[in-house]
Amino acid sequence: MPAVFLRDRSFLRVTGAEAEAFLHNLITTDLASLGTDEARPGALLTPQGKILFDFMIWRDGPGFLLETDAAQRDGLLKRLTMYRLRAPVDFAAMEMEGVTVAWGENAAETRKDSRFAKAGITLTRTPGQDGDDAEALYQTLRIANGIALSGQDFALQDAFPHDVLMDLNGGLGFRKGCYVGQEVVSRMQHRGTARRRVVIVSGSTDLPATGTELTADGKPIGTLGSTDGAKGLAIVRIDRAGEAIAADTPILTADREVSLALPAWSGLSFPTQSDEASA
Predict the structure, then answer these.
(1) Cβ atoms of residues 95 and 78 within 8 Å
(2) Which of 119, 164, 179, 221 could form a disulfide with 240 if both were Cys (CB 3.0 to 4.6 A apart)?
(3) Alpha-carbon dihedral sign for residues 150, 3, 60, 110
(4) What is the pLDDT of residues 26-45, one digit of tens each?
């Protein structure tokens, strides 16, 4: 069973009599349905519906743990404090740094990452260091399953939750009440207007650097994110990619032809012109 320590992760603990209500009404995750054995993705959005901070969240006794990129922790803590007003909620930055992710047939049955569970993989998250396998193993697994990370696959304040598949991986609650940015997110969901999506990129040779543009017929359709040799992730306009695929137009990055696939677990497909016409 691989066990990888990700040292660039940090934690915030949220406790207090109204911790759940406070977070439920602020972030994208539906906490009412969050079990004690799972970790779900979540985000705090801008009023315009874009991801301001992203994290994993799970129950921790009477409160919650938010696991986020170490570079985001202090900013997230400041923003949560701003929203607290007089609510009986407390925040604490944990001294413990890093998280251990483990997966495979013998992975523990606690705190399962819902993003990987959607792909049929039991992957658990445990604060602190409890493994020393190469981080590249996790990177390979993440890319193969279309799991996007901020800072590597998208920039904060530049992506909607739908862009990074949060509508499908447990990170968006559509039956909960209002939260910051909810009106925009709900409109995208009900109108089916999400056109930017995470795709898995495959080439015949190693892919170029993160940030390299993807084009079809000379027009940009997206940007390359994380790479793992000849595999990588990108957020692309799937309507434009669908047109290119249907017309057998090569999709290029740095003048190298690549193929695109939507993560199988997502159930998504590239739209065609007939799909657009009937929409």
Answers:
(1) no
(2) 221
(3) positive
(4) 999 999 999 999 999 999 99
CA–CA gap between residue 68 and residue 12 (Å, rounded):
8
Burial of residue 105 (number of CB atoms within 10 Å: 0-12, 13-18, 19+): exposed
Please say whether the beta carbons of 144 and 15 come within 8 A: no
Rg (CA), the chain: 19
The answer to whether the pTM exceeds 0.70 is yes
Residue-wise pLDDT for 104-136, tens only, equals 875 666 799 999 999 999 999 999 998 899 999
Q: How far is CA 113 from CA 67, 83, 94, 192, 249, in A?
A: 12, 27, 20, 26, 37
For the chain, domains (ranges, CATH) are 3-162+169-188 (3.30.1360.120), 195-278 (2.40.30.110)
